[in-house]
Amino acid sequence: xxxxxxxxxxxxxxxxxxxxxxxxxxxxxxxxxxxxxxxxxxxxxxxxxxxxxxxxxxxxxxxxxxxxxxxxxxxxxxxxxxxxxxxxxxxxxxxxxxxxxxxxxxxxxxxxxxxxxxxxxxxxxxxxxxxxxxxxxxxxxxxxxxxxxxxxxxxxxxxxxxxxxxxxxxxxxxxxxxxxxxxxxxxxxxxxxxxxxxxxxxxxxxxxxxxxxxxxxxxxxxxxxxxxxxxxxxxxxxxxxxxxxxxxxxxxxxxxxxxxxxxxxxxxxxxxxxxxxxxxx
Length: 281
What we know:
- Belongs to the glycosyl hydrolase 43 family.
- By secondary structure, the protein is mainly β.
- The chain has a single domain (2-279), classed as Tachylectin-2, Chain A.
- The chain contains one helix and 20 strands.
- It has a five-stranded antiparallel sheet with strand order 1-5-4-3-2, with no helix packed on it. Strands 6-7-8-9 form a four-stranded antiparallel sheet, with no helix packed on it.
- The longest helix is centred in the middle third of the chain and has 4 residues, at 139-142.
């Protein structure tokens, strides 16, 4: 067993099996492939259990980042970031019959545009039941990092239309440029959720006190927005890339990694009621 405070992980993503009373924790854990940990109390964890390892000839050879697993139409789909020498970073989709894997490629390479540097794809099902991937178009390529969305096929194995711009990182009043410039703004880690008829997004960038977790709110209640940003980040001191999940009792929880510096990053967990009642779905 591994105590939470000893488990190094970035970009935590939790899938809850209420019937079995088990939490599955995925994230960036610095291996060539993806692993999962399991727990019954969010403090003591078993694993890591490998859920994906690349076969010989698999296209990606680095930057195995930010896996997240969604149950969709009775199967489990992993969206994860990867990169290779001479190819752009992108998000690919994998599929399995169970949370412990093994996960196999579902899409033929990334479903993000092949000539874009992209990361941190997340699944969103819109009000009409149509699947989308929301992802980050990296500041490394565009300067002012972009939050984008691309429609997916019903089997999640390919894009079904062109990407659409949702907002740019500099539009949030709390973000600051990196590296002493006035152009390098970062978008990281989107996660969308509904609160009644409202659609909200957790996402990360850098603020005045380091890596931060912010909130954007769709004025229309739909994916296309327009997206409005809170004046201050939800958490603004060296932690971010968050998501929401229900615990085994049905209560909402928030997780993100903190601090952002390696090798000290750890998953932290909060009851959502203790964070901000305005977020409660």
